[in-house]
Glycine oxidase ThiO
Amino acid sequence: MPVSEFLVVGGGVIGMMTTLQLADAGHSVTLLERGDCGREASWAGGGIVSPLYPWRYSAPISRLSTWSEGSYPELALRLLEETGIDPEYRQKGLLYLRVDDEARAMAWARDVGKPLERVDADFLYAKEPQAAPGLAEALWMPTLGSIRNPRLVRALRARLAAMPRVTLREQCEVTGFEWAGGRISAVRTASGGVSGGQVIVCGGAWAAGLLERVDVRLPVRPVKGQMILFKAPPGLVKRVVLMDGRYVIPRADGRVLAGSTLEECGFDKSATSEARESLWHSAVTIIPALADCEVEHHWAGLRPGSPDGVPFIGTVPGVDNLSVNAGHYRNGLVLAPASTRVLVDLLLGREPILDPAPYRVAR
């Protein structure tokens, strides 16, 4: 097997978008995934293409988010055309109910030029007739979009599988690195060594454990999130609605996701009855009619938590050919297009779309 110019470790949305951009630029890439591509946090999340409360995040996250939001409609259309799989990008806006820092939100919107307005009850219930009753007002962000992330990762995988410069190796867990002279000479896997030029770790919640094997300490930890899915009639919920830190997200077929929890419990991915009950109560508080709908699924995923939610993007100090893109916390899918583009720009010697300094590994 010929040696690839790039080895990408981790087949979530970050790893697959990195691979896609490198292959688009004419480079050979081998993607190594311990399970099936896109089946961890990328599959488990909700698919809102924005931080939940964007005004509460730092400027580095906002810059990545803004760039990514603008790229998702084009990416979704591209993948549909190339694969026949529709990622179901929907721009129906978002209604914020009971926001306690409205002044901060409005100031942020003015600063970044984002449409956000206070709306009255008539507007709110015209947009979302089934929303929690008795509210006098809400905040409305008309530009927010969402994407059906399980279909997005299926489409990404299908596209990569069809690209001649890409080699997908699933069920291929990385167990270590051959490291000599300040370089990675090979990646060790359960089925043998894999050689390549540049190595990129996109391992999500597992990234820190991978980098420990080359004596690099990355402050990324797993943070569990649980979600439930209602089988609802189409049109019951029309757009994303957010209240008290919990949200409901409609899909085109009527199903409604409700999430999510934040739990510090290591690599435990078990779904608990306590979380299910809490999520159900939050969902039916936001949309009371969901109480009459069946809960079809309940699952958990592990986010790659970082100290300030800002991902680590760039070369790893002390290792010439090793880079990382991890630590996106709750915003992996939100930030994926921009964060992968920043890293690919750096690797290929292009002018980065954003200043990479706030994301460097040694910050």
